[in-house]
Amino acid sequence: MFAAAVSMGATVIRSHTLGFSSGNANALQPTTTTINASAWTAIDYVFYKATQTGIKLICPLTDCYNYYHGNYGDYPANRGVQKTNFFTNATLTADFKQFISTWLNHVNTYTGVAIKNSPALFAIETGNEFNIRPDVTSTTYPPASWLSDISAYIKTMDSKHFILDGTDENFGNSNDFAISTLDM
User: Which residues lie in coiled coils (predicted)?
Assistant: First the structure.
């Protein structure tokens, strides 16, 4: 994949499951409070190959959609609350921050470098397509307070990489343009 991308002139790849997978036994985060150590192998290898080929990676930290690789609804589901509470519930925010810390501080078994220091990492995306689509995903999108809190938290551990607001279809409604810790 990387060789093909390089031959086509690509310099950046965005990949959902490098930043997370949740909600099933083979996922990186099978439940809110557990990490599946064997799931790091594939993630580590991709970061290793990206570093070798010079490709940069954009990694979402969760997803809005209920796909096979999980979504932010797994956090509230594991706590017995509604998905709409993800952006406002302090316990869920703490759970998400714990995952972020674990992910950023994970040391790659191929390179010996923590994700937060990886030359392959280009941007950390708060989540894929946070939006309002009640028929398929959610009835809420992240408020400015959540975006500010999460992006500032990431910056305390990693100030070298861009933070991408993954909110979709609510252009400016979260006051995201005024949040200094969001880069994109």
Answer: none
Domain harbouring 22, CATH code: 3.20.20.80
* Distance (Å, whole) CA 103 – CA 100: 5
Amino acid identity, residue 74?
Answer: D
Of residues 139 and 142, more confidence is placed in 142
Domain count, the chain: 1
- The domain containing residue 45 runs over which residues? 2-53+69-139+153-178
Choose among 30, 34, 22, 26: nearest CA to 63: 22
β-sheet with 12-14: strand ranges across: 12-14, 56-60, 121-125, 162-164
Q: What is the pLDDT of residues 42-88, one digit of tens each?
A: 999 999 999 999 999 999 999 887 777 888 889 999 999 988 899 99
Secondary structure element (H or E) that encloses residue 46, with its range: helix 40-53
C-beta of residue 27 within 8 angstroms of C-beta of residue 36: yes
Judge whether 183 lies within some domain: no
Look up the pTM and report it: 0.93
Name the token pair of 144.
């400015």
CB of 58 closer than 8 Å to CB of 13: yes
Q: Which amino acid is at 149?
A: D
